[in-house]
Structure formats: structure tokens, C-alpha cells
Write a structure and sequence with these properties.
It comes from Marivirga tractuosa (strain ATCC 23168 / DSM 4126 / NBRC 15989 / NCIMB 1408 / VKM B-1430 / H-43). This is 2OG-Fe(II) oxygenase. The protein has 324 residues and is α+β, with helices and mostly antiparallel strands. It has one domain: Jelly Rolls (Sandwich), CATH 2.60.120.330. It is built from 8 helices and 13 strands. The strands form 2 sheets. Strands 1, 2, 3, 4, 5, 7, 10, 12 and 13 form a 9-stranded mixed beta sheet that branches. A 4-stranded antiparallel beta sheet has the order 6-11-8-9, with no helix packed on it. α2 crosses α5 and α3 packs across α5. The longest helix has 26 residues. It is globular. The protein binds 2-oxoglutaric acid and fe (ii) ion. 2-oxoglutaric acid binds next to β11.
Length: 324
């Protein structure tokens, strides 16, 4: 097992896996596995989301967050508990953190055919009439990120010694979320509650997260030695990290690394930050019981058996986003 300390997250080219030779594919799997066994994050190029689409999506998202509070609140439905549509500031705090994050966000969920059995399990998406282009752009980005996620999970499956298509049926029409986040300008830093940050340190709940480059710096990951490492995705890169569900399934062989978004330096306090993570979830029925191959006397089983749906409900309650 590699014990190296990375100064930045490793960069890989997904085309080495999707469109390469047996050798480049094997090399990709090896480097990805090593990175996920160590820092839990990589940056990838050669994925399916174009720069043009991500820029158009950012523009639409910015237009939405620039609407008045009243207009935005029309898309905040209590019964959806933030799972679809808008969530205003002060609603979500990181697990174990008392002060809410300094952000508002908009969530888009799975696109299921009307006659599919999961149609009744997932709430319908909400679309703002003020930004008519958002629906199509968000759906396109959702599906491009999902397609990228399928390939990443195939590489992960091979690294784990599973069948390459192990995750495919679990994530087909999975409960994934595209979340557009706006971290508003910080007008009066001196009035902020102590501990209030853009996003307090946390691990992601899902299998993997795919994150297109944000509009500003601030994302940091916690390295094993306790150092915070800044992360930036280049314009053509996605940052892809391991979430808690995958860490659980692999008994922490793959690391769900703690990360956070810090407040900007004084000069940049007055500007907004936007980011759009895609949280790739399986269907709620997926069994997250630790894989036998990841449990031995040196690595005793750390987690009790649970389905993805049970785990998600537990975590949403902890961050203030569970339907009551
Ligand atoms: O805003 C970012 O860059 C990342 C946000 C994040 O980590 C999250 O929403 O889980
Ligand atoms: Fe996160």
C-alpha cells in the first residue's frame, strides 16, 4: 500500500480507460486505485462534460441565484426537504457542526421514465420559469456526469477485483443529485457567527462525487498528516472523490476524505462563489455491506450492514435535510 503524501491531487485521463489499450486501461485502474487508497481525490480530463455545457450551466445557475429571495422561495418546498428545487441559506450544516454553512443551493434529481417503478420513489424535479434554459442544461449535464461516473465506477470495480460492471445495475436510475451551490458575498465578516464557513469540513454521503471547476478557490482536502491541501480543477477537468457509501462498502480501503470550502481572503469577501457537484448515488436498495475481499484480520469490519437508502436517511437527518 502506498503511503505517499500528495501535494496536489493526482491528474488522470479517463480516455486511457474508455478509449485506450489494455495497458493504458490497467495503468489508469492502478493509478486511480492508488489515489483512492490514499488521498481519496483525483482530477480527470477526457470525460463527457464539455466546457461549453458547464459554462452555459453556470450562467443559468447564476441567473437563478440572482433572482429575488421571494422568487427563489417559490421553488423551496418544505415537503421536499431540499431534495429538489431551492434551499435557502441557513438550512444545512455539516455532520457534527452546529453552525449552518454560508450557502444556498438548488437540487436536480434523477430523470426516470414515467412507467418506471422508481418514478414514484423519486420526487419530480422543479424548474424555475424565470430561467427556462435551466431544465435542459441541467438534464444534459446530469446525464454527462452520470455517464462519466459509470466509467469511473467500472475502473473502481476492476481495482477492487469485482466484475467490471458490478456497479452498473446499482447506479442505473440511481438516486444521484446535481447540486448547484451559491456561496453569497460575505458583506460583514465581523458579524458572522464564529465557526461559520462556506462549507464546514465533511465527507460526502454518496458513492462518488464529480465536481466541475468552481468559480473561485476555496475547496481544500484534509491530508492524512493533518495538512489542508487546496484543490482546483482546471477548466477541462472534473474532480472526482470517494464518498462515504463507497468507503463503507470497501471497509475504508477507498478513502472518503474530509474536505471543506473556506471563506475567501478579505479582498474577495464581496464576491460570490458558485460550484456544481454531482453526487452519484445508487438506488436505495443497494446493499452497502462491507465486501468480503476488504475484510481480514488486519482490517476488521468497521461498519454494520446497511442499505444505501437506510444510510442516506441517517445522514440526511444529521445534516438537517430529512423529510419530517
Ligand atoms: O463547493 C465546493 O467546491 C464543494 C462543495 C462540497 O464539498 C459539497 O457540497 O459536498
Ligand atoms: Fe463535499
Amino acid at each position: 500500500m502506498s503511503k505517499k503524501l500528495y501535494d496536489e491531487i493526482p491528474s488522470l485521463n479517463l480516455e486511457d480507460f474508455t478509449n485506450g489499450t489494455e495497458e493504458t486501461k490497467a495503468q489508469f485502474v492502478k493509478e486511480l486505485g492508488e489515489a483512492y487508497n490514499n488521498i481519496g481525490f483525483v482530477a480527470i480530463k477526457g470525460h463527457y462534460l464539455s466546457n461549453e455545457l458547464s459554462q452555459k450551466l453556470y450562467a443559468a445557475v447564476e441567473k437563478f441565484f440572482n433572482l429575488s429571495t421571494e422568487q427563489k422561495k417559490a421553488y423551496e418546498k418544505e415537503e421536499l426537504a431540499g431534495q429538489r428545487g431551492y434551499t435557502s441559506k441557513g438550512k444545512e450544516q455539516a455532520k457534527g457542526h452546529k453552525v449552518p454553512d454560508l450557502k444556498e443551493f438548488y437540487q436536480v434529481g434523477q430523470f426516470v421514465p414515467d412507467d418506471h417503478e422508481l418514478k414514484k420513489e423519486y420526487p419530480d424535479n422543479l424548474w424555475p420559469s424565470e430561467v427556462p434554459e435551466l431544465a435542459e442544461l441541467a438534464k444534459d449535464a446530469y446525464q454527462k456526469l452520470e455517464k462519466t461516473g459509470f466509467e469511473m465506477l467500472r475502473a473502481i470495480a476492476i481495482y477492487l477485483g469485482l466484475d467490471e460492471n458490478y456497479f452498473d445495475s446499482e447506479v442505473t436510475y440511481g438516486n444521484s443529485i446535481l447540486r448547484a451551490i451559491h456561496y453569497p458575498p460575505i458583506e460583514n465578516p465581523e458579524d458572522l457567527p464564529e465557526d461559520a464557513v462556506r462549507a464546514a469540513q465533511h465527507g460526502d454521503i454518496n458513492l462518488i462525487t464529480l465536481l466541475m471547476g468552481a468559480s473561485a478557490d476555496g475547496l481544500q482536502v484534509l491530508r492524512r498528516d493533518g495538512e489542508w491541501i487546496p484543490i482546483t480543477a482546471l477548466p477541462n477537468q472534473l474532480v472526482v472523490n470517494v464518498g462515504d457509501m463507497l468507503a463503507r462498502l470497501t471497509n475504508d480501503k477507498l478513502k472518503s476524505t474530509i474536505h471543506r470550502v473556506v471563506n475567501p481572503a478579505k479582498e474577495q469577501m464581496k464576491s460570490s462563489r458558485y460550484s456544481i457537484p454531482f453526487f452519484m448515488h445508487p438506488k436505495s436498495s443497494m446493499d452497502l455491506t462491507c465486501l468480503d475481499s476488504c475484510v481480514d484480520t488486519d482490517n476488521p469490519k468497521k461498519y454494520e450492514d446497511m442499505s444505501a437508502g437506510e444510510f442516506l436517511a441517517e445522514r440526511l437527518a444529521e445534516i438537517g435535510l430529512l423529510k419530517k
